[in-house]
Amino acid sequence: MSVFHRFSITLFAFGCCIAVWWIVTSVGLVNAFLLPSPLTVWRALAELWSSGELLRHTLASAGRVGIGYALAVSIAIPLAILFSISGPFRTFVEPLLEFLRQIPPLALMPLLMLWLGIGEAQKIGIIILACFFPVFLGMRGGIAQVDRKLMEVGKVCGLGQWEIVYRIVMPSALPALVIGLRISLGYSWRALVGAELIASSAGLGYLITDAQDLARTDIVLAGILVIGVIGLATDFVLKRVCSRLAPWLASDLEMARA
Description:
With 258 residues, the protein is mainly alpha-helical. The protein has eleven helices and no strands. It has helices at 3-26, 38-51, 53-85, 87-101, 109-116, 120-144, 148-156, 161-195, 204-213, 217-245, 250-255. Helix 5 (109-116) packs across helix 6 (120-144), helix 7 crosses helix 8 (161-195) and helix 8 packs parallel to helix 9 (204-213). It is globular and about 75 Å long. The mean pLDDT is 86.
């Protein structure tokens, strides 16, 4: 299926959803307070944009997501490689990470507030916890699937341990890694609202919770739509970058949709 056809189908699907939304609110099937019409939400978006509030909150959230995602990736990939080349280190640390993986990041928010304060570090810490494990597990899964014969060939050719990692393990693990990167990016936006729930004065999560307190469901929906659109856009950019740098990964990138 061509890109144009897929884009057309995507637009049609979103158009159908908006049409159903419009009909439901127009005939009064749902209270307008609970579900404002698309026009009301659009007016709220226009009002936020003209006042500069939407841009301010979006930039604050994008900065937190960008920093948290980058730190999570920069920690997860080296740690996964270290797990693969050091059995004693893996044996010692793996149970601790498995324990931590079972805990929702938001459950650690009280401790993060005590340890890191109520500033940016606590919010970025929540996003790091949400992003870390998809990348880490993706990288580990990719390394586990590397053909051992290729590594033996590398040893026979005189490659050192780190050369084998760089020339054989990393390229072989790339398909699983990019899936982890895409899933992790989605998790970062999911964790954003929770990260900005407490002690925030800017950000899309703050915008949504503040609008909830003011009973402005139109602004709540506007904030949710903006997060969804930005999430789609960043995922598209990441996918295009991966496709451009490694065209042979196109089919693997689609697996992350699941």
